[in-house]
Backbone:
């Protein structure tokens, strides 16, 4: 039976042009060889809507959209069970749209391009978790230090999924969680730390061959808790709420390398308060959607 299964699997690979047999078991593990350099494209979009605009900025309903993108050149420093990754930011930029009007540079001069040529760093724990994400420079060099928090909250969760410690086949599932809780940079108002928490259910969707390497596709369903700070023009809001979303990962398991990641989450009816005010705005109806994507642009050095 085993021989027959492998014959059928081989026929399937020829017919399907690269699909790996669904009965194959694989170990999912990211690798960090010392000196490896990978370039990624990163992009996010944040949408906010609420009523009670008169309590915030103006009458009627209120919307805000924030967009950002950057490239990162990520180099593994050291190797083995615990490693450090440094990432230099370039080609960064962002913009904000407030109630349908795009803010000018004079209205919103503190954009992600201020982080160009600066580096961030994080550590990879023995279990594969991303840890200790932060600026690899003195924070005062950033004209708006709160951008460090903003970048951490959208970038860090997209670096690596929680992977199982056992071999898995197509259709197998596992669970994992991530919690990122750090103080807001440049914001001393007695505020609780910024928070990103995911409780995730993962499923191995597909194993395939791509350019000679085995690549897996992973689906992720998330229950989330976010505590974030909006600071645009005269607007300064703290949002704290729970929600749900989904994500997709594409990983080269032969080289242990994330090829792409896409996620979308929504928060329904979060608490909203003016920064510096400990009391939430009463009976406000707010919604938030966050979209993030990350894709390997070039493997510069293996």
Residues:
């Amino acid at each position: 039976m085993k021989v027959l299964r492998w014959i059928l699997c081989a026929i399937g690979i020829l017919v399907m042009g690269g699909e790996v047999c669904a009965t194959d078991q694989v170990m999912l593990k990211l690798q960090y060889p010392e000196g490896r350099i990978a370039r990624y494209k990163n992009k996010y979009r944040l949408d906010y809507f609420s009523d009670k605009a008169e309590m915030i900025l103006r009458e009627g309903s209120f919307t805000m959209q924030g967009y950002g993108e950057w490239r990162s050149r990520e180099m593994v420093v050291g190797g083995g069970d615990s490693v450090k990754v440094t990432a230099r930011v370039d080609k960064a930029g962002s913009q904000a749209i407030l109630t349908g009007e795009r803010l000018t540079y004079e209205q919103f001069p503190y954009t992600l391009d201020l982080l160009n040529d600066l580096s961030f760093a994080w550590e990879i724990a023995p279990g594969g978790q991303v840890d200790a994400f932060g600026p690899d420079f003195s924070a005062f060099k950033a004209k708006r230090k709160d951008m460090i928090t903003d970048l951490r909250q959208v970038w860090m969760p997209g670096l690596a999924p929680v992977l199982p410690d056992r071999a898995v086949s197509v259709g197998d599932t596992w669970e994992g969680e991530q919690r990122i809780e750090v103080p807001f940079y440049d914001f001393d108002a007695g505020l609780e730390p910024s928070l990103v928490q995911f409780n995730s259910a993962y499923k191995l969707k597909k194993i395939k061959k791509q350019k000679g390497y085995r690549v897996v596709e992973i689906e992720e369903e998330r229950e989330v808790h976010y505590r974030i700070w909006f600071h645009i023009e005269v607007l300064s809001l703290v949002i704290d709420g729970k929600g749900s979303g989904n994500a997709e990962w594409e990983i080269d398991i032969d080289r242990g390398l994330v090829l792409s990641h896409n996620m979308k989450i929504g928060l329904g009816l979060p608490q909203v308060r003016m920064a510096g005010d400990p009391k939430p705005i009463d009976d406000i109806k707010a919604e938030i959607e966050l979209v993030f994507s990350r894709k390997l642009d070039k493997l510069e050095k293996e």
About this structure: The chain is about 10% helix and 50% strand. Residues 2-16 form the longest helix (15 residues). Residues 24-301 form a domain with the Lipovitellin-phosvitin complex; beta-sheet shell regions fold (CATH 2.30.230). The two ends are 39 Å apart (CA to CA).
